[in-house]
Structures
1.
Amino acid sequence: MKLRMSDETARSNFNAESAKRSVAITREATASPGPGDERRAHARYLTTRPLVVIPLLPDHQPMRVFQAEGVTIDLSQSGVGFEISGIDRLPSSRLVVGIEGEDEQLYFATLEVRRVDRSNGRLVVGGNFTDPEEDVLRPHNVLPHLNPHSHRFETGLPTLTLYKWAELGVCRPVLIDRILVCPDCNAIPTIRRGCRACGSVRTATSQLIHHFPCAHVGLVSEFEIDGGMCCPKCRQRRLVIGADYEYLTGPYRCLDCNWADTQMEFVGQCLVCDLRFPIQQAIEEELIGYYVHRLDPMGLVSKN
Ligand SMILES: [Zn+2]
Ligand SMILES: [Zn+2]
Ligand SMILES: [Zn+2]
């Protein structure tokens, strides 16, 4: 009875609306920009904005030594033209570009270089933004999600790679969640109530009778005397439910290990290694996502 009350209190204190909002904020912050207005989509806008260029290594790590600064020349939904000084060549045809917005914040996108011209010691570069699903900094790569094969939460890019992008200020680590995982292999468990001693769910509870006048509590079988209901302590006969006595749920007994207890335990079972463990032994794992201010090119030009 007490247990049920505390359950219900916990449930009513847990605000489902706030919880939904918290999840929605996480999703919104990481959504890619929607498709731009068709009319503007193919137009190129002359715009001069500070920009940084970071060439990409084949393993998606930033090529730091070639990091360069420049200014944009023109911008469209599909690409950008810009000039940079300080380097005499681009070491790769895939770049991450960060273009400064009105708020002096850099907004990032992955660019496929289409042309490079040298003029007066500067490089004039034109390229196309990669498809959202090919973008190195797409949500799948930077946010933890359940990998159905490994049964673990993972980011598309290795943590070390994300850490290098974070060091450059391209993304920012944010705590997304803290979850309980298998103490042996860090995979996700399923959870059930089970025996405190062995984790089994095969348990039985005995029903008890509480006799009000004498306060005796005993097994139902002890009250069944001579074909009627009779209190084994005070010997009162012809007991009436509700008026004389009530049923109580007694302790449970484990049918596998014979352990008896008043409470069950939350027991985890790992989806990968099958380990059963009391949930207190689970390891708490922090899920870190890497937030990126992603470039919405038309959002930048329409504010001009
Ligand atoms: Zn495991
Ligand atoms: Zn047991
Ligand atoms: Zn009695």
2.
Amino acid sequence: MERVVLLRSLSCTTACRRAFPSRPKLFARHLSSLNKHVQRTNRSFSLRNRGCPRFILAPHVLLRRSFSLTPQAVATPSSKPTPQETSRTSDVAEKLGFERVSEEWVPECKANAVLYRHKKTGAQVMSVSNDDENKVFGIVFRTPPKDSTGIPHILEHSVLCGSRKYPLKEPFVELLKGSLHTFLNAFTYPDRTCYPVASTNNKDFYNLVDVYLDAVFFPKCVEDFQTFQQEGWHYELNDPAEEISYKGVVFNEMKGVYSQPDNILSRISQQALFPDNTYGVDSGGDPRVIPKLTFEEFKEFHRKYYHPSNAKIWFYGDDDPDERFRILSAFLDQFDASSAADESKIDRQRLFSDPVRVVEKYPAGDAGDLKKRHMVCLNWLLSDEPFDLETELTFGFLDHLMLGTPASPLRRILLESGLGDAIVGGGIDDELLQPQFSIGLKGVSEDDVQKVEELIMNTLNKLADEGFDEEAVEASMNTIEFSLRENNTGSFPRGLSLMLRSMGKWIYDMDPFEPLKYEKPLEALKARISKEGSKAVFSPVLKKYILDNPHRVAIEMQPDPEKASKEEAEEKEMLQKVKACMTEEDLAELAQATQELRIKQETPDPPEALKCVPSLSLQDIPKKPIHVPTEIGEINGVKVLKHDLFTNDVLYAEAVFDMSSLKPELIPLVPLFCQSLLEMGTKDMDFIQLNQLIGRKTGGISVYPFTSSIRGKDEPCSHMIVRGKAMAGRVEDLFDLMNTVLQQVQLTDQQRFKQFVSQSKARMENRLRGSGHGIAASRMDAKLNVAGWISEQMGGISYLEFLQSLEKQVDQEWESISSSLEEIRRSLLSKEGSLINLTADGKILSSTEKHVARFLDLLPREKATANVSWNGLLSPGHECIVIPTQVNYVGKAANLYENGYQLNGSAYVISKYIGNTWLWDRVRVSGGAYGGFCDFDTHSGVFSYLSYRDPNLLKTIDVYDRTADFLREIELDEDCLTKAIIGTIGDVDAYQLPDAKGYSSLLRHLLGVTEEERQKRREEILSTSVKDFREFAEAVDAVRHKGVVVAVASADDVTTAHSERSGFFEVKKVL
Ligand SMILES: [Zn+2]
């Protein structure tokens, strides 16, 4: 339910993000859960960085804080403020009506944190000061729903649609377009709604804060029924002769959520665990219940809960703390105290005295063996009250031990059992008032459901009785400590991950400082483990909270190929009844209202209104691209890139191997080859020992393929990247282990390989349902260029089909598969054509050289060359992938370079603008899709349009086709143009932690993007004119005339489309 930034696509890191879809797990398995969250976020945005506005996973799933040992802002050294500084701040705050409640120095994030209370309203403010330039603000309200109408979620969307000071359609979109934000979004949790922003630029930061505060306290939506209709739900009737349909952004978003089996499972689990409190309903909204919501209830919910008395406000970073209170008091002083904080209190769920069992059906396709597609999950409500910090830490640790890596026993035993394809349930979840634990399998045969439940219970019992290997405990401890030390939150601001941690307690009126300070309890836990042994620490916890706990819910989900169409039929029937009850007058009125809403949605805001959204000016923008220090040298004849950056004693290393001499038929095996390297054993070590060794000595190793087009070249860029990280003292171990993984691992473990195939298949099927836009995009790419074709072989529909047939072959043809894996190794692994990339402080870089030299010496000198040419492309026709879904994903794309367009930086500005205006307005706002966006891959020249959770099909393509007309007629004043340019620079200059800077620089090197080119593009971006927009119309017209269409859609919608345009699509059924 987040709103997620659209289209970060056009930055120079396009190709980097493009690598995500096919990269197996990356560091996630070696990181704590918050980082898992970050990874997951990335993965969901993944395909070519396309985000989708406001997204998908239930935030409590998404924002798991669990292994609650996160941020320590160590990479930004900071000194304690002097006493004078602190007291000066509190003077200003006190003058402005805030009282200081408590203050603490938090060494874990080198920050001074002060908790204030706004005296008049009781609003609570946490003001955290350190010298992190990536400043964060957030305001959070407790918003417990009483039903599944989705009020909190619809409100979360709606308050961002215009406010008192910013009376335009969507100030949020204006900020997306024209600010330098490093984070801009909103999340709905089951019990709270959270509005965070971040920026490294002071002026920009305060602009964002002001827009957000005005939005939450004074939104237009509480007076504007049309916003409620647009974001929530409404009846749509274009012509009284036609059928009525439901429309609404949240309505369609949730239909998408309810089409995904994994989401259905986690929702049912939560509701069954909490039948008696607010978590027993869906704050996101059940599409069958959303239409029961009235505008009156909606307004009342806002009045009651969006009040300072019910607010928790967070500021973090290196800005002037006084300024924070000046901004806040201007808003808060306008309110009196209310009883909201009492009314929003979350009741606890009392523990059951007996376990419960729930059986539900989920919508499935009719392809394949239905009997083998059951899902089983065991869930526990761990406690009738929140955990104390010590128990929380212990449980987080235990969770990592049981499930954190492929070698972890609970995960491994479940997968090795062969009873299912992939794990469901995410282990511990302590984001809500009471902690939960869940684990299960999907792809289970009907007859094995009971066996899975028994296996889970037996394994847990065994772990409680026997304890864990000391090596495993040591590996988990090192992984956790490493991730704390590194504090790598990826693209997620550090201050925001701290805020979410603190909020996990604060929102329930517990101590907000406590979650920030884990150092001592962690030391204590370590000391206990070394003194008493790990069994004495973990077994009692496992027994008390899981094994002896009767509050257990077993969920079984059965595939039902009829369910999707049944639900669709029910909805139709419902709407027909509604229509039957209407008089002719009513119908005319509804048609009129539909028309009026559409006109309102499609009419742009007047320029005066747009001007009220504060923005920077071009003078505030640095003229040069972000510089990443790069020294190119050579070790033993291999090119080495070194980036001297402060990394707090961590070395990040990438070894890159050329893939271009691989036989084309082996390409689809590459992702499985990469997984095998990390998850099979060597002659001397089984894979568990190898994984534990990696966990004990390093911060993690990952291996994945990377593919992209290179501008101006026919041959694609195609590599395998091995990525690793370690503390400076462990660099030798890191390179030894990278060598072990690459050269010593035996690719002969048939049983493990079989599991990889099933897991990958399950993952691909999940992507197809949840990220159909990504699948469509990769399919279009595969029709347009070779790099796209290669990627699709390793991560698209072709890959899924490959996995489906491979699953059947593993038993009969293992010898030949195993030797193909060896052949891949021989084709990739050699000094020739390889490259090393290193990121760390200068001193570490120098001391690393000898280890790199040894690593390279051990590689084969030359590769086994084969004469291969990769010129595969998929057939160029329009295609529709049919899956069981209630919403569609629609794409259209063409290669602009092949149609004569020459790259200019203005294309970045224009594509972003098309996405944020034309497509946003037509595909999302009036079309009712959850998202509509475009992407220009500047490396290949492919320009593509995509929609996300879209109720339409052909209609969306028509919108795409009219983009050129939109550009030809465009009127842009200076202000709008400036905002468009600044927003684009914000994307290009996206905030990166040091490891990401080094990595982006590597990708630019591989893709031949020089510093001169970056400077040139930046100048072109900064000097973009309206004329460029109009000229770009010619370029995008190529998509209209020559573009290829790929949709992922429901069978019904394809039939309807074909009744309008017969034979338009070639139809392909995969699920
Ligand atoms: Zn949403």
